[in-house]
Amino acid sequence: MNFDLKAFRKENKLSQSELCFIWGIAQPYVSALENGTRPVNKEKIKVLIDNYGEEKVSKHLSKDIIIKESKGAKEEIGAMVPMIPLTAHGGSINDAIKQVSKISTEFIISPIPEAEIAIVVSGESMAPEFPAGARVLIREIDQTAFIEWGETFVLDTVNGVVLRQLMPGSDGDKLLCKAINVKFPPFEVLKNDVRSIYRVLLVMSTK
User: Which of 107, 191, 205, 207 is the most exposed place for a label (fewest CB within 10 A)?
Assistant: First the structure.
């Protein structure tokens, strides 16, 4: 979800410290949200709407929501989301997101409005549920909050991007990443090496 946080903050005469308090996050995280190295997710947008009203917030949103109108009622049925030009093996989601507004980026129609971005699966480690070439719709989560162990996530790490099922690591500083394909052994990642975590919302296979 593209949100001009800096413009919103200045218009409402807010400091970064005040946003830290509202969202319950540290100042460096607010700076990352403001300069575009991290996306402002739907949960944070909702908190701003609860505090400042939908009108003040929505004017700074640039995500294209697909609306269906039936008998006078409007319903969100999907969204246009950017297809980040990297695979689930390498590159950085954050670096790619910064380039979305600077380069010609493919947008695809997501059947669910909650999706923020899409990536393409590479390799066979998550087959057959996530075959190579499939498009995966994802949304960033707060990695300090509760993680549903055993579910599939995309991790943006210092060593690249991986798509794996997450389990608790051997100690509190690590995450265990498991492949669906048993030919690929599990491995651990230091939490400090994880830039961001994205929940997989939907996989769209290609024929």
Answer: 207
